Amino acid sequence: MKTALVTGAAQGVGFAAAALLGRLGYGVVLLDVKPIDARVRQLQDAGTQAVGVVGDVAAEPFVRELAGRVARDYGARSIAAGALGQLSEMLAENGPFDPGEPFLAPGKRFDTIAPRADLKDWLRASALEELERISSFSSFFTGETSLKRLETITSLGYGSEEMSRRLQLVRIRFPKPA
Question: Which of helix, strand or coil describes residue 174?
């Protein structure tokens, strides 16, 4: 199934385009700065595979996060990996980040984890974890690049059981010289 991302989808032409795409057999990601749940349900009730995202496409960090999540969820792993890598690098280099702008955590696990003191650390850990997850089916085959990602996730304080297991596996495969 092809998937379309429609901006301005809460009303007017944007919603009409989303509805038409749904009738044509597309899955639809509705995006708007306004609440969109009712419109998503409307399309789902009509038989369209639809999800909604609230955010502002004028905010670059949001667009990077959205690109990573949409690509991951709809099968473009290499695009998702590139977007997540760029996002984590931007955050590591103290790139622009406005917590007043709406944003979407790249990893679904982070949808239920409250950020601690530094919102940037939370977002970076989310991007790195999702990058680790989609880069390879097993960290054993990713090489030493995984080691740095996994250690960073842990050092930021957001490690999960899965990432801890991956870190242990990579450390076994690539032991530090004595």
Answer: coil
Taking phi over 0 as left and psi of -120 to 50 as alpha, with beta for the rest, 157 belongs to left
Sole residue written with tokens 């609230």: 54
pTM of the predicted structure, to 2 decimals: 0.59
Cα distance between residue 47 and residue 133, in whole Å = 31
Q: For 59-90, what is each residue's pLDDT tens digit?
A: 777 777 777 777 667 666 666 667 677 777 87
Farthest-apart Cα atoms in the chain, separation: 65
- C-beta separation of 130 from 85 below 8 A: no
Q: Which of 126, 134, 123 is nearest to 82 (CA)?
A: 134
Report the C-alpha gap between 32 and 63 in whole angstroms. 12
Q: How many residues does the chain have?
A: 178
The answer to whether the CB of 3 falls within 8 A of the CB of 24 is no
Q: 3-state class of 96 per DSSP?
A: coil
